[in-house]
């Protein structure tokens, strides 16, 4: 990363987005480096400009990532398991192998990101998993399916933690959670799009192959490759080199980042900073927070088409009925993100969202005859989706706003996803072939994990609040971190945690 520019005097800062509703026009705007803005820079307008250049780009990549990992559930409804001769719970083994590859390569991928650039690494990952996703459409035996799922996990493993770290280099601490939630909202949109696409592509049965599941993988994988090639041109690097901001905007961004984060430090990669993350108990608790959400998250996204089909619906209708719960999840994710940002509360909204999802699983478990009363179980899926997605989004934002030290934060983000996806590994084995339509084991584990998330979130709330009070008795909270030459990261007593 290039040396930061000298800090310039800064006008009084307006209220942080999205709380500030005042809409003013910036004095000038440009997407090239050779045009200088005149007059004072409007911070809210500049934030909108950054959002429009960053969020849609990475959001599209994550939508494709979640679509390519979860469309296997739609393919199963279209005959995947029968065509590949799967017996018993071999389908579940294929799901598990995805997360094995994902967990193993999470931290290495973020180390590579730190040593390269987002513009190179994120599109390259996307091309690789797009190739694997496409090839999954031409597998003809169980071994091929297993291999494809494993390498899909390997190639997708670096995107989410990489983008979370990427955001930390653009946004102030209090602004990151809202953007991470918007980014994660693409997962819910992927569920809705997956249902629509699977419904349409399912009608391609008889073209080359007897069943249409082949085309689900092939068409969606090819779309990923096309978008990934374009991503080399629309993914930007860090503020010090991004071409869509002017020199004065660049100086202003680096100045505002230095007020509460280390994003303007020119921190070299060292293995000592990697060890700082590995030895910090809080980093492991952030991972456990996602661990307790990943099981319900991925069991829901991978098995929802099967759960709905087992209520007595045809494959085509089941694909369509997956759309409304995901749309509801997208709405609740954005709503909770806005209020959490405005009130500066994290743990309480995670606990409330997890509790909302628990209601959904109580409804699913209490319906003793789902085929006779499918509407009751279908209602339960709305509660589950509406709580799982916002709670996961908030849990995933914690290390991005609380871990200071660029390398430590990159590793902490990757640790969180790796630890978290161990829950997904377990979850893939819970919805067994003969457990439908009630799926008591799977639903019970999801409910238990959500209760575990409430416990972990409460523990983190206690630890972080207590540590802040201890540090208040030592020294005042630091201002202008970017100006400090003796900054030791979040272990410094001048740092305050957000909870």
UniProtKB/TrEMBL annotation:
Principal subcellular localization: membrane
Which Gene Ontology MF annotations are present? transmembrane transporter activity
Q: Which SUPFAM superfamilies match?
A: MFS general substrate transporter
- Origin organism is Rhypophila decipiens
What is this organism's lineage? Eukaryota, Fungi, Dikarya, Ascomycota, Pezizomycotina
Instruction: Show the PANTHER family listed in the entry.
Output: PERMEASE-RELATED, TRANSPORTER, PUTATIVE (AFU_ORTHOLOGUE AFUA_6G11320)-RELATED
User: Keywords on this record?
Assistant: Membrane, Transmembrane, Transmembrane helix, Transport
Give the top-rank taxon of the lineage listed in the UniProt record for this protein.
Eukaryota
Give GO cellular component annotations, separated by semicolons: membrane
**Which compartments does it reside in?**
Membrane
Keyword Transferase annotated: no
Protein name (database record): Major facilitator superfamily domain-containing protein
Give all residue intervals belonging to the Major facilitator superfamily (MFS) profile domain.
54-469
Write down the InterPro entries for this protein, in alphabetical order.
Answer: MFS (IPR011701), MFS_dom (IPR020846), MFS_trans_sf (IPR036259)
Asked if the record carries the keyword Transmembrane helix, the reply is yes
Q: Which Gene3D superfamilies match?
A: MFS general substrate transporter like domains
Topology relative to the lipid bilayer, per the entry, is: Multi-pass membrane protein
Location of the region described as Disordered in the Swiss-Prot/TrEMBL record: 1-37
């Amino acid at each position: 990363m290039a040396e930061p520019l000298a800090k310039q005097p800064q006008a009084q800062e307006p209220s942080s987005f999205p709380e500030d509703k005042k809409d003013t026009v910036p004095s000038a705007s440009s997407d090239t480096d050779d045009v200088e803005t005149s007059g004072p820079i409007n911070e809210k307008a500049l934030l909108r400009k950054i959002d429009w250049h960053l969020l849609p780009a990475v959001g599209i990549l994550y939508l494709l990532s979640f679509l390519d990992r979860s469309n296997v559930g739609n393919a199963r409804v279209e005959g995947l398991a029968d065509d590949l001769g799967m017996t018993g719970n071999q389908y579940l083994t294929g799901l598990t192998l995805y997360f094995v590859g994902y967990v193993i390569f999470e931290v290495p991928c973020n180390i590579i990101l730190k040593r390269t650039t987002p513009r190179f690494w994120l599109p390259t990952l996307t091309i690789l998993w797009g190739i694997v996703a496409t090839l999954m459409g031409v597998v003809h035996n169980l071994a091929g399916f297993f291999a494809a799922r494993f390498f899909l996990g390997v190639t997708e493993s670096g995107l989410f933690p990489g983008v979370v770290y990427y955001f930390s280099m653009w946004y102030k601490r209090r602004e990151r959670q809202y953007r991470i939630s918007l980014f994660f909202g693409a997962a819910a949109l992927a569920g809705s799009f997956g249902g629509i696409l699977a419904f349409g592509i399912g009608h391609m049965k008889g073209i080359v192959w007897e069943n249409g599941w082949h085309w689900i993988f092939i068409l969606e994988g090819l779309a990923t490759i096309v978008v990934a090639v374009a991503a080399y041109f629309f993914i930007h690097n860090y503020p010090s080199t991004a071409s869509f901001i002017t020199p004065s905007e660049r100086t202003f961004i680096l100045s505002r980042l230095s007020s509460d984060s280390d994003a303007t430090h020119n921190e070299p990669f060292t293995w000592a900073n990697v060890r700082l993350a590995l030895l910090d108990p809080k980093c492991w608790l952030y991972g456990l927070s996602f661990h307790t959400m990943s099981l319900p998250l991925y069991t829901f996204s991978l098995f929802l088409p099967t759960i709905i089909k087992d209520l007595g619906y045809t494959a085509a209708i089941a694909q369509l009925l997956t759309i409304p719960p995901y749309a509801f999840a997208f709405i609740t994710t954005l709503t909770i993100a806005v209020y959490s940002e405005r009130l500066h509360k994290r743990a309480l909204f995670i606990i409330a969202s997890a509790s909302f999802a628990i209601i959904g699983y109580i409804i699913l478990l209490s319906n003793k005859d789902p085929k006779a009363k499918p509407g009751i179980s279908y209602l339960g899926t709305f509660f589950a989706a509406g709580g799982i997605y916002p709670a996961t989004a908030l849990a995933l934002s914690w290390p991005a706003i609380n871990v200071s030290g660029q390398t430590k934060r990159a590793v902490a983000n990757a640790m969180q996803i790796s630890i978290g996806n161990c829950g997904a590994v377990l979850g893939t084995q819970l919805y067994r072939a003969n457990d439908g339509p009630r799926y008591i084991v799977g639903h019970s584990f999801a409910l238990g994990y959500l209760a575990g998330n409430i416990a972990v979130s409460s523990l983190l709330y206690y630890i972080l609040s207590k540590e802040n009070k201890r540090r208040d008795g030592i020294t005042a909270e630091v201002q202008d971190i970017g100006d400090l030459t003796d900054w030791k990261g979040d272990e410094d007593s001048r740092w305050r945690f957000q909870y």
